[in-house]
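Extended Data, record MULE transposase domain-containing protein
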Amino acid sequence: VFCIFKPCIDGFKYFKHIVQVDGTFLYRKYKGTFLVVVVQDGNNKIFPIAFVIVEDEIVDAFYFFLHYLKRHVCSQDGICLISDRLKLIKNAYFRQGIVHVFCIRHIAQYFMRHFRNVERKKIIINMGMTKPRFNYYFNTLRRKPNNEGLTDWLNTIPREQWTLAWDDSRRWGHMTTNLVEEINSILRKTRNLPIFLIIMLTYKRCNSLFI
């Protein structure tokens, strides 16, 4: 189910051309993943533009989502999309011609699963979020003892997809999907409902924002 409201379509052209997307699971009787797409205006106000319900986080589901997002909302060239670093959706982004960058918070979570080192996690976050000092933090990380495999792991992630230093200003300074989390918190009580009710309640919540 791809759900979008007319004010979202009309309003997107006035916003930054970077969109954030993240998913949350539906629970109880009705299973699936609820994807929310959010943008931000020049005054840093949050603007939801699309809501999608898919059966599971698989390539075809994300292709469906991206296809209709491009078709109905983000038809402009040069759209940048920030999300989780899921390998399974890599081909979906490529097939839609969308620039894909990673949320630094998710990069840090994946790092902790592999290495479980809080000090080095903080260095990696600083590497991603500090534009002029990337080399400083990278060299600091390399000089740390017992770093076997760590820099090799980092080198598997294209640096232009997770660091501001190599970003070429595509992500407008956005490093996380936190804006989506704000909308998810507003809609959290809908996730155990039938799909029709989820759509209706989402419409009412968005309608209260637009009026």
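Summary. The chain has a mean pLDDT of 81.
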